[in-house]
Amino acid sequence: xxxxxxxxxxxxxxxxxxxxxxxxxxxxxxxxxxxxxxxxxxxxxxxxxxxxxxxxxxxxxxxxxxxxxxxxxxxxxxxxxxxxxxxxxxxxxxxxxxxxxxxxxxxxxxxxxxxxxxxxxxxxxxxxxxxxxxxxxxxxxxxxxxxxxxxxxxxxxxxxxxxxxxxxxxxxxxxxxxxxxxxxxxxxxxxxxxxxxxxxxxx
Length: 203
Prior knowledge:
Blueprint: E1 11-15, H1 23-32, E2 37-41, H2 47-57, E3 62-66, H3 71-79, E4 85-86, H4 92-101, E5 105-106, E6 108-109, H5 112-120, E7 125-128, H6 136-146, E8 151-154, H7 163-167, E9 175-177, H8 185-199
Parallel strand pairs: 1-2, 1-9, 2-3, 4-5, 6-7, 7-8
Helix pairs in contact: 1-8, 3-4
């Protein structure tokens, strides 16, 4: 699995779309703000259509999918062109599907047991979620001591005010969040620019 996109994309926007009509305007705002990656969550009924439209409209953008909790969802998303897959927790069947297609999979973990489950199938880039509710940097640092080859992508409680605190940690590969998706298209563009400005120090 190739996670080199984190070399130039330290911030992964978590994008919840409630209508297919939101897809192009919101992703366009991200791009104007300098962010060329998006995690479209499978939380809404229109998500598959939004994903398909995003992949078609923005071929140069790294469009992935989030909130994938089973193999069926994973297969559907990958068939629609998702370039990476994110889960709130670890799923062996989702991991196996992504590995078989050589698509980056970032499962959510909190405990040492979950980290070991992910590592057992060859994964070492893991989503730490929900970060703020389970000790944030302190917990990731403790896990990193036991698993020095693991790199985390904290999500949940990450925002503009603390983004730099996460990205400066050597065990953090990037960070996910939805803080830049609030408000108007102009708001999204502005928040994206600020996120990119903060993140560029760690690229």
